Structure prediction request, 459 residues.
Amino acid sequence: MKINFRNYYVIFIALCCLFLMYSILSYLSFKQNNGHLIYSLDDAYIHMAMAKNLANHGVWGVTKYEFASSSSSILWTGILAFIYLISGVNQYLPIILNLIFAALVIITSYFILVRFGIKPVHNLIILLSLIIVTPLPPLMFTGLEHVLHIWVSIMFIYLFAEVLSNTKTTRKYFMWLVFFAALLPLIRYEGIFLALIAAVIFAFRKHWFKSAMIFFFSLLPIFVFGLISIWNGWSFFPNSLLLKGGFPDVTTLPEFLGFITHVTASMFSPKIIIAVLILFVVTGFLFHRYKLLIRNIFRNQISFMIVLFAANLFLYAAYSRSGWTYRYQSFLVALAILVFGIILFRFVVPEVRLGMFLKYCIIVFIVIPFCYFAYSGILLISNTPRATTNIYEQQYFMGQFLNKYYTGKGVALNDIGTSNYYSDIRCVDLWGLSSIEVSKLKRSGSFDENDVRRITKKY
Prediction:
């Protein structure tokens, strides 16, 4: 499809809105924090501390003294470490990277929407929704990998639909698909769901080679890092997954088999089965009443994006985690805006003679959830400066205090990111993210204050 360069004003307006919101939040945050750049979550400083130690000391850990598998985003920490190695350690890198990836989300989404024939005004509505509803500005201020995860997920789901729907696509398209499949679990381990579902769909379509390639290269990074972690005396999965995600410790064959059983049981949990049944009933009824509309949708490559998104949503629900930013689900929100935006403006809006039932379905399944997430997004945007101030008033000053009085000494902490980034201490992580002994004790349910004293004395 030929792209009309005169419609680039859509990208310009969307990017201006994104950078305006970022500028306002930056001004408010800097003003409240005495001119300091502060991220809204302490987790950002965990990645920064690990990147600092990897770049300066060659150690993958929150401190320079020992290996620690504390990060579930291998790629994000790796990118920070690589740039730190070249340019030196600085606190501005995560927000700069998030600005770049947020712009890529907008630009990539624009071209995908143009590819599906979405009109400029509707394109702009969807792009603004991505900014506000996802919402991108608060995610940027977390200093974490979530904006990168959104962009890679969008690229992957589009390339998947393009390769699967068009047998004449070049080999380059498929190689890019495999590349992004490998990136997904490196950005977040949960990204493996999207890649494996795509591999299964390729297998159902009897594209055995493509299925095997995606399956192999999406699992390869996880196994390589897992073996490195075990070699260093840690678990196969990072401690953040073991403690927060409920993943079992996989270091032996029985534990691995237990993990497979755990995943299988989650896939067939009652809430997943009920959701799938409701989806089939609603789809069947709509197909019976509106055959032409449904057929037009499923003859288009958007159908493959719908299937991949829906399957990933149901599987991800078994492991969903929430926070004040609903940051773990943000990529699903962004994919939903993109996929349902295409359905709405490409297929539904042009059909002016819609029955009342279908209109009500649109309101229930698209408009109401959109309004809910829009309200949540606006609320998160407004709360971002306050969140950065909370980190500044607590963790930031704790890091400065430890740097001045406890350099090289053993310190037991609960929030380890900011303190380890700004100081050089021998950290005992009371949560267990960077301390393997604490992690094992907490997962066994036997961690108490005597263990804290005993472990801290070792330093």
